[in-house]
Structure formats: C-alpha cells, structure tokens
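so im writing up the methods section and need the BNR repeat domain protein record in one place, dumping it here so i stop losing it
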Amino acid sequence: MTNLRTSIAFAVLIASAGCDTDPICTPLVYDRNERRCVCPPGSEWIMDEAICVLPDGGMLHLPDDAGSRSADDACVPQAWYRDGDGDGHGDPLTRVDACEAPDRFVAAGDDCDDECETCAPGRAEECDGTRDENCVGGVDEGCDCATGRSRACPGGTDIGECAAGVQTCIDGAWSDCDGAIGVATEACNGLDEDCDMVIDGPAASAACGSRPRATSVACSGGACVVAACTTGFDDCDDDDANGCEAELAADESNCGACGNQCGWWCDGSDCVGIATPVAGSSITCLITDRSELACAGTNDAGALGVGDTRTFSSRPVFVVSPSATTRLTGVTQVSVGTQHVCAALSDGRVACWGSNLYGQLGPGAGAQQSRPYVVPGLSTAVEVVAGQQHSCARLASGGVRCWGNNEAGRLGDGTTTQRTTVATVLRSDGTPLTGVQRLSVGTAHTCAITSARTAWCWGSNFFGQLGDGTTTTRPSAVQVTGLSNVVQLESGSAFSCALDSFDRVRCWGDNVHGQLGDGSTTRRPAPVQASISDVEEIGTGSSHACARVSGGRVLCWGRNAFYELGDGTRTTQLAPVVAQFTNVEALVVGGARTCILDTAGRLWCVGINDRGQFGDGSVPNSDGTATPVRLIEP
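--- predicted struct ---
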C-alpha cells in the first residue's frame, strides 16, 4: 500500500501543480467556482486519506483543498490546439483537453501549417507555388501557375532544331510561349528541322529535288549530292547544282571517266591526242595519235581533203581516204602548201590533194582533188614537203623526188623543164643528192639536211634563199655556205634558217621584214647568225621566224602585221622578242601565224585567222589575233 500511495501522491502532485498553474485536471474535474480540481462524478472521495478512487478502481491523491463536488458543479474539459502562427487555427497534432483554453491555444484544430499565418481553412490561395493557403491538401488550387515561376511551354520539345520555349507566370496566369521553335520541313543542311532525332533523314534527300541527268539525288554530310547518273554521264565537278554535267563520251576533261584529261578531243570515251601539228598559210593540219589527219582553214580547190567543195572550216575536219568512204589513216607526216596538202603514209606512199594547176599533186591527178590522190611512182617515201606549186618527197634510201612546177628549177633535176613524172633531185655535178635526213620548203625553193649535217638547197634564189652566197637560181642542189653541224632546217617564203648542234641559229635570204634576226633588213645570200642563243627548236612563217629556247620560252622576230610574233603588238621586230606562250612543248609556225603545242597536248595560235585556220570554231577575220587561241575538237 505504501508504494501505491507514493505513486498516487506523485501523480496527484503533478495534477495539483497543473491545476494551480494551468487548469489541466484530466482525468479530474475542474471546479470553476473553486478553481480547483475535484473528483469526477462516480468517484469515491476518501476524506481521511484525501484519495479519489476512480470508477475504474484507480486512485488519485488530491491536495488537501480538493474534495468531492457534484457533477453539476464540475466542468467538462474540451480539446484545445496550439496556434503557433496566431491565425486562429491550431495544429491538430498539438491537442490538449482542458476546461479553459491554455495560452496560445484555440478550439479550432484545422490548421494545415501552423508556421504560416496566411495558411488556414477558408483562406484564398496566393498562387505562390509553395504553400497550401486554403488547407485543402494541395498547392495553388484554382491558380494556373505560381507567380514568378517559369516552365517549358506545354507540348514543346528541345529535340533537334526545335526549342520548347519558356512561359512565365504573371499574376497566376501563364504568359505566351516565348522563344519556341516548332517542327519545320526537313532540309539538307546537317540539321534536324523536323525534330525526329534524325539529322538529314529521308525527308532531307527528298528536299534536294532533281538535278540534270541525275537518276538519284541524296543528302549527305549536310549537302545535296548526286548519287547516280544517267548512263554515259557523271558528276565530275562535285557540284550538285549542274547535276551530271560530264558527258563521258565527249568531255575532254572527263573522257570515259572523271578526271581523264584529253589533250585535244574525247571521241566516244577515248582520248584522241595531237601527235604532230603543222601550220601553213591558210590551213592547219594535225596528225592524231591514231595516225589520222584533221585540218582546218581554207578549202579552196578542195585543200581540206574532205571530199567536198565547202569554202572553209573553222574547226578541224578529218581528211578522208582516197575512196572517201573512211578517214585517211596511216599518216606519218604532213606538209601544207599554199593551196595543196601532201601526207606521207605508213606504207611508203604519198597522198596529195587540193590545187593541181602545176601538177603539184602528182602526175595524172587532173585539175584539182578534194580527196587524197596517191602520187604514182612512190613506194618508199618517209617525208614529203609542199611548196606553192611543187612538192618533194624524201625516200627511205636518202634520195629525193620532186614533182609539179619546175620554173626556176624547183624540182632540182638540173633543168627547168616541166615534167609529167616525178624527178630525181641532183647535185650540181649531176649526181643524185643522197643521204638526205630532213627536207624543208619555201615558195619556190627547197632545202635538205644530209647525214653529214650539211645543208643543200635548190630552186629560186632571187633573194639569196639558197644560201650559196649568190642570187643565182639553181636547178640542182647546192651546198649552203658556211654551215655545219646542222640539226634542224626550216624555210619561209624566200628565206631559210638552220639550227646547229651548238644551239645557234643561222638564217639567209630575204630580210625585208627583219626575218633573219640579225638586226637589219638587208637580204643575205649567205647565212648570218640571229641574235639568239640556247635554242632548242626553230620555226619559220612566210616572213617571220621563231625559236623555242631553254626554259620553255618562245622568241620571235620579223614581220608582225597580224600579231604573229606573239608579243601583243603589230610592230615588226628586227631582233627576237618574247612571245606570250607558256608551257611550250613544241613550236609550230607557218604563214602569218605562230602556234605552240603545250605540255597538256593543246594547240594555241596567234596571228591571222582569215580562213578559219586557227581551228577554234570562230568566225574568220583578217585583223589578226594577239591573244593565243586554242584549236578545238572536230
């Protein structure tokens, strides 16, 4: 009993203390009049021991001033809730039962946030995005948004080039979407405009559209490219805009395949190159690397050899065979005269065509021939030259045969008698000229280099063009005086020049335009040295001469009425001047023109083009051309 009493006394002490300071009397009853705790109704009050025996048998020791009261006098405790934020609503988790409200306690226990004085049932939401001001269990009910907040625009995306954009909450309402970029049509540019997470997908290829002669266009690496071409075409410049621009059967820069560069012409996907070009007064001819022959220029008397009587052709046309059914083939060398052309063939024959007023096409040819006529009596020819009215051929044996006009003894047979057969060229002692390795021809004279590296000439010598120190016409070959070690010999209308093994140039004959290159206009019946050195190749026109020197430069001198010297002027030059050619591979001079074959195999010319002899396809003009013009394909 002692322990029980002690426990009860401790409990009642706590209760009494509570009643004295804070009227919390549970489970006792508070006496409002006496302002003290009393036993609740149904309890037994034991006065002597000051114990309140509760209905459940529990006992409480009450202070001396406690006592039994009737139920009518006692209060019934009620629930009170702590109101920490002073908004009149208490925290339901801080309930106490008492007859009167403790300090800072209230009867309403429905506060949802006792640290928020603006949060209580019935309050309006402030749309702040953080607190439940109306205590209904959510945030910002009835608000579109919380003022000041921002978000990605609904339905937006940041995939590819798309941007979701941003909305800002202003007064509880979302603003318009700012900065949004929506789905766009896919283009070929390395971007994902349709925002399907695929850069330049099928839609981009479709956006590329079509291209000329392309069967397929695709998008690759952010750019439209030609994926496939019509048969026979290709995209060789990697420019999709012009599609498959290269016709492989005709494009000289892409012959048969992209990048396959032809020097001259693309013929059915095969390159055709210029093997040997030759320039005459009004005609340019070239032997192809197929051993065919094409010419451009005048067709007077059928000089183009194409089998018809057209006036001229300003682009190359192929010489036909003697039967005119195919192209002439097997051509090894060609020479262009004034109005006729002759070619040496691989079988030892010689064919000529054009004017035949003086028999220059060969015995029995008739007045003229517009297709090749095979010169009778020749079967071992290796070279042929065509003058104004005569022709000569060098035989494999080293002898020379000539035919045509024998005025001034230009056939070299020791007479001036007209011949109906080919004539053998003789020395002045009556013996045949032998050991000949190279021929050259002027208007009415012919020259030859022999195996002894000496030069011999015959025919007209009015200007001293035979080089024997006289101006006496020679119907048989005479040796050019003072020349030795000759490696090349070229003849103009009435003068000739020789290149020796020491890279020096000697010239003789007519010099009215300074074509001998000695700085004067005095005719020279014997060779004089031109003021030039380090020469690798020479060429002669009607009244001018040129040389290719070491380093690839070309220098010219003489008449310049049609810009034929290539220096861009019309000024006659008595000494060599530099011509405006580059990348020179070979020198080609004739008439009033100078041409070069460049290192890429292309032929370029300056000078007169009055009969289309440039072969560039342009309208002929007689003014002359100062800037090099390129010969084009047939």
